[in-house]
Amino acid sequence: MDSGRDDGLASELANLPLETRYPPFTLRQYAGFWLPEVTLARGLPAARDRFAPRPDDVLLASFPKSGTTWLKALAFATVRRAAHPPSSHDHPLRRRSPHDCVPFLEISLALADDMDAAAADLDALPSPRVLATHLPFSLLPVPGRLAAAAGRIVYVCRDPKDALVSSWLFTRKASENVGVDAGSFSLREAVELFCAGRGLSCPQWRHVVEYWEASRNEHHRVLFLRYEQMLRDPVGSLRTMAEFMGCAFSPEEEERGVDRAIAELCSMEELKNVEANRKGRTGSGVKADAFFRKGVAGDWSNHMTPEMGKMVDEAVKHGLRGSGFSFADSTTPVSGQPSTLAK
């Protein structure tokens, strides 16, 4: 099927390969990726038909559970710092979830009761708009138009094993919100699906490689970040992001510590203590606390057996064969881009 066309996509869902073992999502394989039915039936077609990109748009892209919530908070606080100084007691991130501050493009459209109203809400956002997506690069809405509009994409990748465990734990929590019993969905089952490239937005390695290749081919338009590097140097990573998004911190701002204040505002510790993130629900209906766990690197070893870890490593190694990309490079600065280690 031509991934560049939507014609009849919703009506053709029944003919796409089906995966029902990843609660609470019913997945279909489209253009090589396993995506939720609702995304394919409503979100993707609506994004392509109703989304009008702007030259100064910032699109935050990620494989699920790869640092998306943190990336949203950092980008929003940075782009909107003139209107919302990080020191403000009434800052939106002190009252709302990052997911309500930065909407998902395809998800907000897919879940909307009134799609026209949802599209109008996206269009009404002030420029520069900060939006998010879990779509693969090859399925971004009208990528040709986006390229012509010179919108910027910031992508964050994470170690596959950590992303897998975080996704598994999240889906179990998310299932509770929709009355689906995911208690029997074991980590081993999640590992086996992941290794077969059949989980949510999988294959993960292909998702990552598409954006990595785009960042190499269009470095002025796509910034590729590694979650582990961001953890080691959040302020340096934030400065890299700000410069790329067209809103670099001035020497005066750095002297006043604005960048450090934003990094602190968006830290896991601060965000977890916001009442809306402890007790509220996001616009999609999911309990906000489901998006906040540990946020550390290497936590997979507290959940997976060594055998499971080896299974994932072997599957990823096979999937990356010939790509030139390596997750092991997360320990070093990204080649060809500013180091995130210099403060």
From TrEMBL:
Residues 55-323 form the Sulfotransferase domain. GO terms for cellular component: cytoplasm. The keyword Translocase does not apply. Keywords: Transferase. Coiled coil: none annotated. It comes from the Eukaryota. It is an enzyme of class 2 (transferase). Its EC number is 2.8.2.-. The keyword Cell membrane does not apply. One of its GO terms (molecular function) is sulfotransferase activity. Pfam families: Sulfotransfer_1. GO terms for biological process: sulfation. Belongs to the sulfotransferase 1 family. This is Sulfotransferase. It comes from Hordeum vulgare subsp. vulgare (Domesticated barley). The gene is LOC123450925.
